[in-house]
């Protein structure tokens, strides 16, 4: 790997070990075996590098969201069964020891102090919203219309961020996928759409 890739891998390890605020440029240099000048040359700043490292970590853990191909193959897109299956996979990543999702809480709290990082992560957030839609509804990510990103993607992403917060602060009382699905069933029934929705609603 070149210095750019070494820096990214080193920054990812530092984030997982120390978090965003506590990681220094020298920590990253030591972990990656590079030099201070290479951070500015390849990424512009330490914070920009850490932001990209965080996005890369999210991308890696999100590969687990689909779980087994058979599980999703057996649950129709848009169904409550698919809704429960996907959330079961997502929640499993939050329950893992040393889950990287605690970084999300730290970064959100620091957002106002890091405007450049905030802008970078806002763009990544939009893509995360887009990526969640086909997980639940089927189809291809590149074919998701902007309206679906704003509505479905926003709904799933907001629910995920709420779960991240809950699992970080009080994991014992956080809802599992079955409880989330039961809640959605009650919402559907409460709107009078329960009978019309049938098995759908994810």
Provide key terms for this protein.
disordered C terminus; 202 residues; mainly alpha
Describe, in short, the structure shown:
This protein is an all-alpha fold. It is built from eleven helices and no strands.
Radius of gyration: 19 Å
Number of helices: 11
Cα distance, first to last residue? Answer: 42 Å
Q: What is the strand content?
A: under 5%
How is the main sheet built? none
Shape: elongated
Pick out the low-confidence regions. Answer: 197-202
Write the element-wise H/E pattern from the N-terminal end onward: HHHHHHHHHHH
> Into which percent range does the helicity of residues fall?
over 70%
Written description of the protein model:
The protein is an all-alpha fold and 202 residues long. Helices cover 71% and strands 0% of the residues. It is elongated and about 60 Å long. Residues 197-202 have low confidence and may be disordered.
How would you summarize the topology of this molecule?
Blueprint: H1 3-18, H2 25-32, H3 36-43, H4 46-62, H5 69-73, H6 80-95, H7 102-110, H8 115-137, H9 146-169, H10 177-190, H11 194-197
